[in-house]
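LOG
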Amino acid sequence: QVQLVESGGGLVQAGGSLRLSCAASGSSFSINAMGWYRQAPGKQRELVAAISSSGSTNYADSVKGRFTISRDNAKNTVYLEMNSLKPEDTAVYYCNAFIRFYYYWGQGTQVTVSS
């Protein structure tokens, strides 16, 4: 049973920083792509950033230059460093992992940015 466990969310003032972590466990297969999505109230879930097993990254235009995704393959962990946070970054952030043929999701962690 694959599990993704996120941590690091919280409340921060605009301009502040947070670091999210997501640890994957329970898989006997290598993890391919990993990513972070977010969903704000009343909005659809959207891709924030993704990273391949080789380290290639892509970002939503709204976070480019402010967020950095990275991963530690030895620990099956993906990170999201978020700087210069804005109130519009407020959302539940979900970790995602593509393993073999399936996508797996974490339970989500709340990020709230106050103005």
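LOG (cont.) second protein
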Amino acid sequence: QVQLVESGGGLVQPGGSLRLSCAASGSIFSIGLMGWYRQGPGKQRELVAVITSGGSTNYADSVKGRFTISRDNAKNTVYLQMNSLKPEDTAVYHCRAGRFGNVYWGQGTQVTVSS
């Protein structure tokens, strides 16, 4: 089993920045792809960004150039640096990890972008 705990969400004004963290614990050996997904009010969960164990990344078009995903394998932690935030980025952000064909999710952290 892998446990994922997110942190770093909150309320921010449009144009502001936040940094989300997701710490993995438990059976963390050979965790592969990690990433961030979000679910806005009345919307389906969608991919935000993913990163492989080797550091290759992929982003949703809506966040390219504004968000950066990174990973510290020694700390078993993945980060999401979010800049130039927009009201449409408001959502619950969930961390996701894959290991030996199993998928694990964190509980999520709320990000609200509002003036």
